[in-house]
Amino acid sequence: MIFTEEHLWLRIEDGEDEITVGLSNYGAAEIGDAKFVELPEEGDVVSMDDPVVVIEAGSDAVDILSPLDGEIAEVNSRLIDAPEIISEDPQGDGWLFKLSFDDPDALEEFMSEAAYQKYIR
């Protein structure tokens, strides 16, 4: 798992040009209890830093930005009926979406778990 400065985790799927994206435990704690989530559509083409997910928690709505250029391969549709999964298990069942991408070199920009732990301290 690798991490972004925006408190997202990225898991590279075995031998695929696809990553699973979710909020880090720290990011989920910062947002608070998720009450509503708006997910992208499968097949949407996105650019890095495009807003792709909106999470409403309390009176705030937070935009989650795409970490890479790519295409939405899959969304975690369970979150529509149960957004609290994001808060309860952000680095597991609370994943947000899977993204197909073309530039594996772009992954070198992100932090290892150890570097991320230093970053959030």
TrEMBL record:
<dbReference type="GO" id="GO:0019464">
    <property type="term" value="P:glycine decarboxylation via glycine cleavage system"/>
</dbReference>
<protein>
    <submittedName>
        <fullName>Glycine cleavage system protein H</fullName>
    </submittedName>
</protein>
<dbReference type="InterPro" id="IPR002930">
    <property type="entry name" value="GCV_H"/>
</dbReference>
<dbReference type="GO" id="GO:0005960">
    <property type="term" value="C:glycine cleavage complex"/>
</dbReference>
<dbReference type="InterPro" id="IPR033753">
    <property type="entry name" value="GCV_H/Fam206"/>
</dbReference>
<dbReference type="InterPro" id="IPR000089">
    <property type="entry name" value="Biotin_lipoyl"/>
</dbReference>
<dbReference type="InterPro" id="IPR011053">
    <property type="entry name" value="Single_hybrid_motif"/>
</dbReference>
<dbReference type="GO" id="GO:0009249">
    <property type="term" value="P:protein lipoylation"/>
</dbReference>
<dbReference type="GO" id="GO:0005737">
    <property type="term" value="C:cytoplasm"/>
</dbReference>
<feature type="domain" description="Lipoyl-binding">
    <location>
        <begin position="18"/>
        <end position="100"/>
    </location>
</feature>
<keyword id="KW-0450">Lipoyl</keyword>
<dbReference type="Pfam" id="PF01597">
    <property type="entry name" value="GCV_H"/>
</dbReference>
